[in-house]
Specification:
alpha+beta; six-stranded antiparallel beta sheet; three-stranded antiparallel beta sheet; 3 helices
């Protein structure tokens, strides 16, 4: 009789453990983000997105997923709660060089979604070079740009960003 009770208790703990693993651990790692819908405000992402267009973002996505070149991200500028939508182009360790006011990342010229060249002023290049040593982006730095190459408050204006300020991923 005691043996059956002990086996029953062990079986119960085993089942509770499996339940906990499936519904908490597995769901967290497989679905470690939640989706929200936001409206685009402004023209900084033209031609990719238009002002007023509804888009979906994945909150907490980067808590358990890697950043990827070309990801469209939401960035919290200086932890102020002001969220900006940008495209992630440069990663720590990327080889960067400038030629004729254009920027090349790992020997590829930076272009927007419409394949237009980004043209940078001498002052913008000078600012960005603060985060580049021996032609490589510093280890903690990420550079982000808007898709609108003519109307841009991005890394050319407010420097490199930190990963901790990347809050959402566009879906």
């Amino acid at each position: 009789m005691k043996k059956n009770i002990i086996i029953g208790i062990i079986w119960m703990f085993f089942c509770v453990g499996i339940f906990f693993h499936i519904f908490f651990v597995e769901n967290y790692f497989w679905n470690c983000y939640t989706q929200v819908e936001k409206n685009i405000s402004g023209n900084s992402m033209n031609p990719l997105f238009k002002s007023g267009e509804k888009v979906n973002f994945l909150i907490w996505y980067y808590n358990c997923n890697s950043l990827n070149r070309g990801d469209i991200i939401a960035y919290d500028f200086a932890n102020t709660g002001n969220i900006y939508m940008k495209i992630l182009y440069w990663f720590p360790g990327d080889k960067i060089f400038f030629k004729e006011n254009k920027i090349f990342i790992n020997n590829k010229e930076l272009k927007n979604s419409a394949w237009n060249n980004y043209i940078f002023s001498d002052a913008e290049i000078k600012l960005m070079k603060l985060f580049i040593k021996n032609n490589f982006l510093q280890e903690w730095s990420y550079f982000i740009f808007w898709d609108n190459i003519w109307n841009s408050d991005d890394s050319r204006k407010f420097w490199a960003i930190w990963k901790k300020n990347i809050v959402w991923k566009f879906q």
